[in-house]
Amino acid sequence: MTKKIIALLLFVSTITLAQEKVLLRLNYEKGDSYTMNMKMAQVMGMGVMTNDMNIQMKYDITNVSDDTYESTAKYTKMAMDMKQGAMQVSYDSTKKEEELDDTGKMMKSQMKPMLEATIFMKGDRMGTILETKAEPNFQGAEKITDQSNSVVYPENAVAVGDTWTMNKNKDGMSLDFTYKVKSISSKNVLLDVSGKVSGVADGNITGSIDIDRKSGILTESKINMTMKIQGQDLTTNMVVNQFKN
To answer: How far apart are CA 101 and CA 94, in angstroms?
Structure first.
């Protein structure tokens, strides 16, 4: 009898966990500070062009209301290594100018406005960026939200197996994402990512996302895109990690 009761309890608990739902929201608190680290690797054709980038950003939550939050952010590191034929560009903002070659020094002058700027952002708890501005302003500041790897969460609570979609338009490309809840635990929510690329490029999106259940922060995002653009195959692999300081 005891074994039957234990088996029944285990069965009920398994069913309960499978049916568990979670309302995904960004639960920032004023004064919170986070670091974002993004690594991206791109290959076009049979190695005709390669591009490796590493960007780090620190952002502070300056205000929180019932539905929105405000933050300030600064880039703390930008590094890239790009090769295209005989041309090679290497840059790392953490290096001294005398450690850079001529192309690196040119990149340093181009990146300087971004590294010196403070970025002000306002968003809602579902993940939508409502306002963005940079002081002092720099070229391309308006595209910061396009480069964001944030996910806009669904309105309703989700359970394992539930899906929702999101669309991003960037540089003539339409990115259609589908997010599927893979698992839910007391600490995190795991998502499988799939999707399509259309417009000036055609291709597929795969990946995974790990969300901290309590804060709603994406602790790790892995996005892979394979596409064809102007007759060339382009592969992009992006990994983003975020953690509280």
So the answer is: 14
Residues 100 and 154 sit within 8 Å (Cβ to Cβ): no
Q: For residue 145, what pLDDT is reported?
A: 58
Is residue 195 pLDDT above 90, yes or no? Answer: yes
In angstroms, the CA 46 to CA 234 distance is 9
136 preceded by a cis bond (ω within 30 of 0): yes
| Beta strands in the chain, from DSSP E residues, in sequence order | 21-22, 33-44, 49-64, 68-84, 87-92, 118-124, 129-135, 158-159, 163-170, 173-184, 188-199, 202-212, 218-229, 232-244
Report the alpha-carbon distance of residue 147 to residue 38 in Å, rounded. Answer: 11
Cα–Cα dist 196/198, whole Å:
7
Domains of the chain with CATH codes: 23-244 (2.30.230.10)
Beta strands 163-170 and 173-184 are antiparallel
Residues 6 or more apart whose CB falls under 8 angstroms from that of 112 comprise: none
From 185, 203, 186, select the one nearest 194 (Cα to Cα).
203
Give per-residue pLDDT as tens, 111-169. 899 999 999 999 999 999 999 999 988 877 766 655 555 799 999 999 999 999 999 88
